[in-house]
Amino acid sequence: MNRTAPFARMNGLGNEIIVADMRGRADRVTPAAAIALNADAATKFDQIMAIHDPRTAGTINYIEIINSDGTQAQACGNGTRCVVQALAAETGQKVFTFETVAGILNAEEHADGLISVDMGVPRFGWRDIPLAEEFRDTRMIELQVGPIDAPVLHSPSVASMGNPHAIFWVDRDVWSYELERFGPLLENHPVFPERANISIAQVTARDAITLRTWERGAGLTRACGTAACAAAVCGARTRRTDRKVTVTVPGGPLVIEWRDDDHVVMTGPAEWEFSGSFDPATGAWQRDTQDVA
Ligand SMILES: N[C@@H](CCC[C@H](N)C(=O)O)C(=O)O
Q1: Pfam families, per this entry (predicted)?
Q2: In whole angstroms, what is the distance from residue 107 CA to residue 145 CA?
Q3: Which of 33, 82, 89, 253 would bridge 10 by S-S if both were Cys, CB 3.0 to 4.6 A apart?
Q4: What is the pLDDT of residue 63?
Q5: How many structural domains are present in the chain?
Protein backbone atom coordinates (compact mmCIF):
# COMPACT_ATOMS: atom_id res chain seq x y z
CA MET A 1 0.00 0.00 0.00
CA ASN A 2 1.34 3.45 -0.92
CA ARG A 3 1.95 5.77 1.97
CA THR A 4 0.10 8.56 0.15
CA ALA A 5 -3.34 8.62 -1.43
CA PRO A 6 -4.51 10.84 -4.32
CA PHE A 7 -6.97 13.64 -3.64
CA ALA A 8 -8.82 16.31 -5.56
CA ARG A 9 -9.62 19.65 -4.01
CA MET A 10 -13.12 20.54 -5.28
CA ASN A 11 -16.15 22.61 -4.30
CA GLY A 12 -19.91 22.36 -4.54
CA LEU A 13 -21.22 25.96 -4.72
CA GLY A 14 -18.31 27.05 -2.54
CA ASN A 15 -18.70 24.21 0.00
CA GLU A 16 -15.02 23.26 0.16
CA ILE A 17 -14.49 19.56 -0.37
CA ILE A 18 -11.48 17.23 -0.49
CA VAL A 19 -12.27 14.06 -2.43
CA ALA A 20 -9.79 11.48 -1.12
CA ASP A 21 -9.22 8.32 -3.14
CA MET A 22 -8.87 5.59 -0.52
CA ARG A 23 -9.76 2.74 -2.90
CA GLY A 24 -7.59 -0.35 -2.54
CA ARG A 25 -6.40 0.71 0.92
CA ALA A 26 -7.09 -0.69 4.36
CA ASP A 27 -6.42 2.54 6.26
CA ARG A 28 -8.67 5.55 6.87
CA VAL A 29 -8.19 9.30 7.01
CA THR A 30 -7.43 10.04 10.65
CA PRO A 31 -8.94 12.97 12.57
CA ALA A 32 -5.35 14.29 12.97
CA ALA A 33 -4.87 14.30 9.18
CA ALA A 34 -8.19 16.11 8.70
CA ILE A 35 -7.26 18.76 11.25
CA ALA A 36 -3.80 19.24 9.66
CA LEU A 37 -5.27 19.61 6.14
CA ASN A 38 -7.81 22.11 7.43
CA ALA A 39 -5.08 24.15 9.13
CA ASP A 40 -3.32 24.73 5.79
CA ALA A 41 -4.83 27.66 3.83
CA ALA A 42 -4.37 25.80 0.52
CA THR A 43 -6.29 22.70 1.60
CA LYS A 44 -8.69 24.22 4.15
CA PHE A 45 -11.98 22.40 3.67
CA ASP A 46 -15.48 21.87 5.00
CA GLN A 47 -15.64 18.09 4.38
CA ILE A 48 -13.41 15.26 3.23
CA MET A 49 -15.26 12.70 1.09
CA ALA A 50 -13.15 9.54 1.41
CA ILE A 51 -13.94 7.08 -1.39
CA HIS A 52 -13.42 3.49 -0.20
CA ASP A 53 -13.92 0.12 -1.85
CA PRO A 54 -17.56 -1.03 -1.81
CA ARG A 55 -18.84 -2.90 1.23
CA THR A 56 -22.21 -3.93 -0.17
CA ALA A 57 -23.06 -5.67 -3.46
CA GLY A 58 -24.74 -3.30 -5.93
CA THR A 59 -22.88 -0.21 -4.72
CA ILE A 60 -19.88 1.32 -6.47
CA ASN A 61 -18.10 2.73 -3.43
CA TYR A 62 -18.42 3.30 0.29
CA ILE A 63 -18.08 7.01 1.09
CA GLU A 64 -16.86 8.20 4.47
CA ILE A 65 -17.58 11.86 5.31
CA ILE A 66 -15.29 13.79 7.65
CA ASN A 67 -15.92 17.33 8.90
CA SER A 68 -13.10 19.86 9.23
CA ASP A 69 -12.98 19.33 13.01
CA GLY A 70 -12.19 15.63 12.36
CA THR A 71 -15.66 14.33 13.31
CA GLN A 72 -17.72 12.05 11.09
CA ALA A 73 -20.87 13.20 9.27
CA GLN A 74 -23.60 10.91 7.98
CA ALA A 75 -24.46 12.88 4.84
CA CYS A 76 -23.05 15.63 2.62
CA GLY A 77 -24.96 16.74 -0.45
CA ASN A 78 -22.38 19.07 -2.01
CA GLY A 79 -19.58 16.59 -1.34
CA THR A 80 -21.54 13.79 -3.01
CA ARG A 81 -21.84 15.88 -6.19
CA CYS A 82 -18.06 16.41 -6.10
CA VAL A 83 -17.50 12.63 -5.79
CA VAL A 84 -19.81 12.04 -8.75
CA GLN A 85 -17.97 14.58 -10.90
CA ALA A 86 -14.56 13.15 -9.98
CA LEU A 87 -15.61 9.55 -10.71
CA ALA A 88 -17.49 10.50 -13.89
CA ALA A 89 -14.36 12.26 -15.19
CA GLU A 90 -12.27 9.18 -14.38
CA THR A 91 -14.59 6.46 -15.68
CA GLY A 92 -17.00 8.09 -18.15
CA GLN A 93 -19.81 6.57 -16.10
CA LYS A 94 -22.85 8.79 -15.48
CA VAL A 95 -24.93 6.89 -12.93
CA PHE A 96 -23.65 5.93 -9.47
CA THR A 97 -24.86 4.09 -6.37
CA PHE A 98 -22.89 4.80 -3.20
CA GLU A 99 -23.13 3.60 0.34
CA THR A 100 -22.67 5.94 3.33
CA VAL A 101 -23.13 5.37 7.03
CA ALA A 102 -26.65 6.80 6.58
CA GLY A 103 -27.62 4.47 3.70
CA ILE A 104 -27.60 4.15 -0.08
CA LEU A 105 -27.32 7.22 -2.35
CA ASN A 106 -28.15 7.21 -6.07
CA ALA A 107 -26.68 9.95 -8.24
CA GLU A 108 -26.42 10.96 -11.87
CA GLU A 109 -24.36 13.42 -13.91
CA HIS A 110 -26.48 15.10 -16.61
CA ALA A 111 -25.39 16.13 -20.12
CA ASP A 112 -25.19 19.80 -19.01
CA GLY A 113 -22.72 18.87 -16.24
CA LEU A 114 -25.19 19.37 -13.40
CA ILE A 115 -25.46 16.50 -10.95
CA SER A 116 -28.56 15.13 -9.23
CA VAL A 117 -28.33 13.16 -6.01
CA ASP A 118 -31.24 11.27 -4.48
CA MET A 119 -30.62 12.21 -0.86
CA GLY A 120 -33.13 9.65 0.43
CA VAL A 121 -36.15 10.09 2.65
CA PRO A 122 -36.31 12.85 5.30
CA ARG A 123 -37.19 11.88 8.84
CA PHE A 124 -39.06 14.05 11.31
CA GLY A 125 -39.43 11.90 14.44
CA TRP A 126 -37.73 13.37 17.51
CA ARG A 127 -35.73 10.17 18.07
CA ASP A 128 -34.62 10.10 14.41
CA ILE A 129 -33.20 13.63 14.31
CA PRO A 130 -32.26 13.07 17.23
CA LEU A 131 -33.63 15.39 19.91
CA ALA A 132 -32.91 14.91 23.59
CA GLU A 133 -36.57 14.95 24.62
CA GLU A 134 -39.93 14.17 23.09
CA PHE A 135 -41.43 16.72 20.69
CA ARG A 136 -44.62 15.42 19.10
CA ASP A 137 -44.64 18.06 16.33
CA THR A 138 -41.23 18.81 14.87
CA ARG A 139 -42.59 21.31 12.33
CA MET A 140 -41.78 23.85 15.04
CA ILE A 141 -40.11 23.22 18.38
CA GLU A 142 -39.56 25.73 21.19
CA LEU A 143 -36.01 26.05 22.47
CA GLN A 144 -34.85 27.59 25.71
CA VAL A 145 -32.08 29.82 24.40
CA GLY A 146 -30.53 32.16 26.93
CA PRO A 147 -27.91 34.28 25.17
CA ILE A 148 -29.70 34.76 21.83
CA ASP A 149 -31.88 37.84 21.74
CA ALA A 150 -33.76 37.47 18.40
CA PRO A 151 -37.10 35.73 19.19
CA VAL A 152 -37.28 34.07 15.75
CA LEU A 153 -34.18 32.12 16.73
CA HIS A 154 -36.06 30.19 19.42
CA SER A 155 -38.44 28.04 17.35
CA PRO A 156 -36.97 26.07 14.45
CA SER A 157 -38.36 23.34 12.23
CA VAL A 158 -36.20 20.25 12.66
CA ALA A 159 -35.49 17.30 10.37
CA SER A 160 -32.96 14.60 9.59
CA MET A 161 -31.52 14.24 6.10
CA GLY A 162 -29.32 11.47 7.47
CA ASN A 163 -27.79 14.24 9.60
CA PRO A 164 -29.54 16.62 12.03
CA HIS A 165 -30.84 20.01 10.89
CA ALA A 166 -32.59 22.96 12.54
CA ILE A 167 -34.18 25.51 10.19
CA PHE A 168 -34.97 28.93 11.68
CA TRP A 169 -37.52 30.79 9.54
CA VAL A 170 -36.91 34.54 9.34
CA ASP A 171 -38.71 37.44 7.64
CA ARG A 172 -35.66 39.65 7.16
CA ASP A 173 -32.68 39.17 4.86
CA VAL A 174 -30.65 36.17 6.09
CA TRP A 175 -27.50 38.33 6.05
CA SER A 176 -28.95 40.59 8.76
CA TYR A 177 -28.49 37.82 11.38
CA GLU A 178 -25.20 37.13 13.18
CA LEU A 179 -25.06 33.44 12.33
CA GLU A 180 -21.39 33.26 13.28
CA ARG A 181 -22.34 34.32 16.84
CA PHE A 182 -25.37 32.12 17.55
CA GLY A 183 -24.52 29.21 15.20
CA PRO A 184 -22.06 27.59 17.64
CA LEU A 185 -24.45 28.09 20.58
CA LEU A 186 -27.34 26.44 18.76
CA GLU A 187 -25.18 23.69 17.23
CA ASN A 188 -24.31 22.62 20.78
CA HIS A 189 -27.74 23.24 22.37
CA PRO A 190 -28.59 20.39 24.80
CA VAL A 191 -31.73 19.56 22.83
CA PHE A 192 -29.40 18.21 20.08
CA PRO A 193 -27.50 15.27 21.65
CA GLU A 194 -25.51 14.76 18.42
CA ARG A 195 -25.26 18.52 17.78
CA ALA A 196 -27.00 19.96 14.69
CA ASN A 197 -26.50 21.93 11.49
CA ILE A 198 -28.06 25.37 12.04
CA SER A 199 -29.67 27.33 9.19
CA ILE A 200 -31.57 30.55 8.80
CA ALA A 201 -34.07 30.54 5.96
CA GLN A 202 -36.15 33.22 4.29
CA VAL A 203 -38.97 32.18 1.97
CA THR A 204 -39.04 34.65 -0.92
CA ALA A 205 -41.65 32.86 -3.10
CA ARG A 206 -43.58 29.57 -3.03
CA ASP A 207 -40.66 28.07 -4.96
CA ALA A 208 -37.71 30.02 -3.53
CA ILE A 209 -35.79 30.00 -0.25
CA THR A 210 -32.66 31.95 0.69
CA LEU A 211 -30.49 30.04 3.17
CA ARG A 212 -27.35 30.43 5.26
CA THR A 213 -25.91 27.58 7.31
CA TRP A 214 -23.64 27.11 10.28
CA GLU A 215 -22.49 23.52 9.79
CA ARG A 216 -21.97 21.07 12.62
CA GLY A 217 -18.25 20.35 12.75
CA ALA A 218 -17.32 22.88 10.06
CA GLY A 219 -18.79 26.30 10.97
CA LEU A 220 -19.99 28.90 8.46
CA THR A 221 -20.04 27.54 4.92
CA ARG A 222 -20.95 28.96 1.52
CA ALA A 223 -23.28 26.03 0.87
CA CYS A 224 -24.75 23.02 2.65
CA GLY A 225 -26.63 20.57 0.45
CA THR A 226 -28.35 18.63 3.21
CA ALA A 227 -29.43 21.92 4.83
CA ALA A 228 -30.94 22.99 1.50
CA CYS A 229 -32.84 19.66 1.42
CA ALA A 230 -33.93 20.09 5.06
CA ALA A 231 -35.14 23.66 4.37
CA ALA A 232 -37.08 22.44 1.32
CA VAL A 233 -38.86 19.62 3.16
CA CYS A 234 -39.53 21.75 6.25
CA GLY A 235 -40.81 24.57 4.01
CA ALA A 236 -43.24 22.19 2.28
CA ARG A 237 -44.22 20.50 5.54
CA THR A 238 -45.11 23.84 7.13
CA ARG A 239 -46.98 24.93 3.96
CA ARG A 240 -44.59 27.79 3.34
CA THR A 241 -43.42 26.45 -0.02
CA ASP A 242 -44.20 24.00 -2.82
CA ARG A 243 -42.41 20.65 -3.00
CA LYS A 244 -39.97 21.85 -5.68
CA VAL A 245 -37.90 24.92 -4.73
CA THR A 246 -34.74 26.74 -5.65
CA VAL A 247 -32.68 27.17 -2.49
CA THR A 248 -30.18 30.00 -2.90
CA VAL A 249 -27.17 29.67 -0.60
CA PRO A 250 -24.21 32.10 -0.50
CA GLY A 251 -22.47 30.02 -3.19
CA GLY A 252 -25.45 29.96 -5.59
CA PRO A 253 -28.67 28.07 -6.34
CA LEU A 254 -29.59 24.43 -5.73
CA VAL A 255 -32.81 22.90 -7.03
CA ILE A 256 -34.47 20.63 -4.48
CA GLU A 257 -37.49 18.45 -5.22
CA TRP A 258 -39.34 16.46 -2.54
CA ARG A 259 -40.85 13.84 -4.80
CA ASP A 260 -44.18 12.10 -4.24
CA ASP A 261 -42.30 8.87 -3.37
CA ASP A 262 -40.87 10.82 -0.37
CA HIS A 263 -37.31 10.96 -1.76
CA VAL A 264 -35.51 14.31 -1.88
CA VAL A 265 -33.51 15.01 -5.05
CA MET A 266 -30.89 17.77 -5.07
CA THR A 267 -29.48 19.15 -8.34
CA GLY A 268 -26.48 21.45 -8.65
CA PRO A 269 -22.90 21.86 -9.89
CA ALA A 270 -19.48 20.68 -8.74
CA GLU A 271 -16.09 22.19 -9.58
CA TRP A 272 -12.55 20.75 -9.61
CA GLU A 273 -9.77 23.06 -8.29
CA PHE A 274 -6.52 21.07 -8.08
CA SER A 275 -5.17 17.59 -7.35
CA GLY A 276 -2.46 16.20 -5.12
CA SER A 277 -1.55 13.36 -2.82
CA PHE A 278 -1.62 13.21 0.97
CA ASP A 279 -0.72 10.99 3.88
CA PRO A 280 -4.02 9.80 5.43
CA ALA A 281 -2.29 9.38 8.81
CA THR A 282 -0.74 12.83 9.15
CA GLY A 283 -2.28 15.08 6.47
CA ALA A 284 1.14 15.93 4.93
CA TRP A 285 0.40 16.67 1.27
CA GLN A 286 1.78 17.83 -2.03
CA ARG A 287 0.24 19.23 -5.18
CA ASP A 288 0.47 17.20 -8.40
CA THR A 289 3.24 18.64 -10.55
CA GLN A 290 1.08 18.82 -13.69
CA ASP A 291 -1.25 21.19 -11.80
CA VAL A 292 1.52 23.59 -10.85
CA ALA A 293 1.61 26.66 -13.15
N1 LIG B 1 -21.74 20.30 3.61
C2 LIG B 1 -22.61 19.23 3.75
C3 LIG B 1 -23.02 18.75 5.09
C4 LIG B 1 -21.85 18.20 5.85
C5 LIG B 1 -22.15 17.48 7.12
C6 LIG B 1 -22.46 18.35 8.29
N7 LIG B 1 -21.47 19.29 8.64
C8 LIG B 1 -22.80 17.42 9.47
O9 LIG B 1 -21.94 17.19 10.34
O10 LIG B 1 -23.92 16.91 9.48
C11 LIG B 1 -23.69 19.17 2.72
O12 LIG B 1 -23.47 19.70 1.62
O13 LIG B 1 -24.72 18.53 2.94
Answers
A1: DAP_epimerase
A2: 39
A3: 82
A4: 98
A5: 2
